[in-house]
Amino acid sequence: MLLNRLKMKEQAEQPYDYAKFHAQGQAILDMWYEIALAGKVPSEQIAADHVYFKNLLEPSRW
């Protein structure tokens, strides 16, 4: 999981890929959210991961 997060961050730092990365990241976030709800992940973990991914996908510099 951590490796995936680092890879996503690395991709986000490539200026030519922002829009593509954001679209892919949003799709992954949506899919993860559905899986987390179906798998009955604790709501605190869902909230924490959701905030983490949203911040990664929508940094203030965009």
Task: Explain what you see.
The protein has 62 residues and is mostly helical. The chain is 76% helix and 0% strand. The protein has helices at 2-12, 18-38, 43-57. The mean pLDDT is 72. The chain has one domain (2-57).
Short characterization:
The chain is mainly α. The protein has helices spanning 2-12, 18-38, 43-57.
Mean pLDDT: 72
Helical fraction = over 70%
Our measurement of the CA-to-CA distance between the termini, rounded to an integer number of angstroms, reads: 25 Å
* Percent of sequence in beta strands: under 5%
Return the structural class. Answer: mainly alpha
Shape: elongated
Oligomer: single chain
**How much is the radius of gyration in Å?**
12 Å
Number of domains: 1
Total E-strand runs:
0
Contiguous low-pLDDT stretches (5 residues minimum) are none
- Reading the helices and strands in chain order gives HHH
Instruction: Describe the largest sheet.
Output: none
Number of helices: 3
Task: Lay out the secondary structure.
Elements: H1 2-12, H2 18-38, H3 43-57
Helix pairs in contact: 2-3
Primary descriptors:
single chain; 62 residues; mainly alpha; 76% helix; 0% strand
